[in-house]
Amino acid sequence: MNNAELIERQQALRLRSAQLRSSLQDQVQVLKRPLALADAAQSGLQWLYRNPAWPIGALTLVVVLRPKRVMVWAGRAWWAWNSYQRVQDWLARPP
């Protein structure tokens, strides 16, 4: 390859690179909102880990004020957890 061909190839590659960057930027916009939601959820969980007294206090308040409702929801949560475990075991079984 001579010098002119190399320069022409370099320009073509730069143009293609610019097109790919533009295309990638358009495609990344689709992921922007779900990733922002995941970041917000992660921030919320980090806050809960740093401030465990607030959720424990809220749960204690609910247990004191509405014990029957807590028992109903605890039963539902237990059933959901058992169902989840059964599905996990079923999926882990070899075919």
Describe the structure.
- The protein is an all-alpha fold.
- Helices cover 92% and strands 0% of the residues.
- The chain has helices at 3-50, 53-65, 67-92.
- α2 (53-65) crosses α3.
- The chain is elongated and about 85 Å long.
What proportion of the residues is helical, as a percent range? over 70%
Secondary-structure-based class equals mainly alpha
Report the oligomer. single chain
* Proportion in β-strands: under 5%
Please state the average pLDDT score.
92
Uncertain regions spanning at least 5 consecutive residues? none
Task: Please provide the count of β strands.
Answer: 0
Described by strand count, sense and barrel closure, the largest sheet is: none
- Topology pattern, helix = H, strand = E: HHH
Treating each run of at least 4 consecutive H or I residues as one helix, how many helices? 3
| Gyration radius, rounded | 27 Å
Number of domains: 2
The 3D shape can be described as elongated
The first-to-last residue Cα distance is 58 Å
